[in-house]
């Protein structure tokens, strides 16, 4: 049994997989870690979700709660911790230190800590999860799976910045990209669907061009050609690129010293504002959840409508630029919270791309609540537009097992998760 952990600042997602059966046995999440109202949502295969309230003041207690739930005689899936062969941890940023998943030891953990400033909203929580798991499960192998790994195939002309070369040589300043496990999973699934649904022929199936759009609180877009990533929107940190829930995305860097001088504050303070108080929140003044923004926009809130128009305009530009970079596109994939569930964002993003052969079925796009992955919301005779729920945990599992079996080869060991 393999346990995948995805630790956020106030939540711990988990998934338990039987590798021999290639089957997800259970999954769940501990919500509101650090709050008196924390709880766990636990779901066994083909059964309902069970909610249990328990105070989890920190990640260590949250992970212990997950283990207790997994071993519970009534709702659990294992008899003892010895059945858990390894734990895979999501780590957002590996800097230039890690190009693939690794077995965690003291040196690896120290190196992850060295680059945590590159992802200030995520890496500290990932580190907390690793440290907590090592305390609770000291004898079980722990493996770090990096969001940046999938993007290591990007060519130098796409990942380099036009800044002094020494910045790259001495400090590793370059585009890294994020949400790698998500982009990998949905692009591989899109390949399977394109072939199964006969949108591509055998002759061109090895050179598929797919644009994957991960739209959650964080947003990133990737261009995936022939199964590998050739460009992505996030950069040196997760701040670059599309407009996000609380992040600004692309801005003129000269704004930073300008506003710092006007407000008499530090550049560090400005960066914090760009990470935590900008994006959708900055424009609307109150919302980050696209459901709230969409509802308010439809009720006449001009700031919320502006925020959605700004976000979808930039998403549309990425589709155009990545189609140009790859020499065409065979499919577009929407994934993550808003990508999977917000019809309005999908509609506004796709509308106007008819000249590229990308057309959306408006009625089908709206009628997607509660549906599964094989949703093609494209209009007839158009390039497929898929909604594919991401499953980063399954990518974790593939990497973890490959490392345990000493057969790890970057991005070539994915045998099971993406088929079917």
Task: List the domain count as a whole number.
Answer: 2
Helical run tally: 15
Helix content: 25-40%
Tell me the CATH superfamily of the largest domain. Answer: ATPase, nucleotide binding domain
Note the main sheet. 8 strands, mixed
| Number of separate strands | 14
Q: Alpha-carbon distance between the termini?
A: 21 Å
What CATH architecture of the largest domain would you give?
2-Layer Sandwich
- Strand content of the residues, in percent? 15-25%
Rounded radius of gyration (Å): 21 Å
Spatial shape: globular
CATH domain class of the largest domain: Alpha Beta
**Which class of secondary structure composition applies to the elements?**
alpha/beta
Low-confidence residue ranges: 410-416
Describe what this molecule looks like in 3D.
With 420 residues, this protein is α/β, with parallel strands linked by helices. It has two domains: 2-146, ATPase, nucleotide binding domain (Nucleotidyltransferase, domain 5, 2-Layer Sandwich); 189-392, ATPase, nucleotide binding domain (Nucleotidyltransferase, domain 5). Helix content is 37%, strand content 18%. It has an eight-stranded mixed β-sheet with strand order 5-4-3-2-1-6-8-7, sandwiched between helices. The chain is globular and about 60 Å long.
């Amino acid at each position: 049994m393999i346990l995948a952990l995805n630790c956020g600042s106030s939540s711990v997602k988990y998934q338990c997989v039987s590798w021999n059966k290639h089957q997800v046995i259970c999954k769940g999440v501990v919500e509101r870690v650090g709050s008196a109202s924390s709880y766990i949502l636990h779901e066994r295969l083909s059964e309902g979700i069970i909610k249990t309230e328990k105070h989890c003041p920190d990640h260590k207690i949250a992970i212990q709660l997950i283990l207790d739930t997994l071993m519970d005689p009534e709702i659990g899936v294992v008899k003892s911790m010895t059945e858990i062969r390894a734990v895979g941890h999501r780590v957002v940023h590996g800097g230039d230190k890690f190009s693939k998943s690794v077995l965690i030891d003291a040196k690896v953990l120290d190196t992850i800590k060295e680059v945590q400033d590159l992802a200030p909203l995520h890496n500290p929580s990932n580190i907390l999860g690793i440290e907590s798991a090592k305390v609770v499960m000291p004898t079980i192998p722990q493996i770090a799976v990096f969001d940046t790994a999938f993007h290591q195939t990007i060519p130098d002309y796409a990942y380099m910045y036009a800044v002094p070369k020494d910045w790259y040589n001495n400090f590793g300043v370059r585009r890294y990209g994020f949400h790698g496990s998500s982009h990998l999973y949905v692009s591989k699934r899109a390949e399977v669907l394109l072939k199964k649904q006969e949108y591509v022929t055998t002759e061109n199936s090895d050179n598929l061009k797919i644009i994957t759009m991960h739209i959650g609180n964080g947003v990133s877009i990737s261009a995936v050609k022939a199964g590998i990533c050739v460009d992505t929107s996030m950069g040196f940190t997760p701040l670059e690129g599309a407009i996000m829930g609380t992040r600004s995305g692309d801005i003129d860097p000269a704004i930073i010293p300008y506003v710092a001088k006007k407000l008499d504050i530090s550049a560090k303070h400005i960066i914090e504002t760009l990470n935590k108080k900008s994006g959708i929140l900055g424009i609307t003044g109150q919302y980050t959840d696209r459901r709230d923004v969409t509802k308010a926009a439809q009720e006449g809130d001009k700031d919320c409508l502006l925020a959605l128009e700004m976000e979808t305009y930039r998403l549309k530009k990425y589709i155009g630029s990545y189609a140009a970079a790859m020499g065409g596109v065979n499919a577009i994939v929407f994934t993550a919270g808003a990508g999977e569930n917000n019809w309005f964002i999908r509609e506004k993003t796709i509308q106007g791309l008819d000249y590229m052969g990308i057309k959306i079925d408006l009625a089908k796009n709206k009628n997607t609540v509660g549906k599964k992955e094989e949703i093609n919301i494209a209009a007839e005779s158009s390039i497929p537009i898929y909604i594919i729920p991401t499953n980063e945990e399954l990518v974790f599992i593939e990497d973890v097992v490959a490392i345990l079996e000493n057969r790890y080869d970057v991005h070539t060991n994915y045998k099971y998760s993406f088929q079917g």
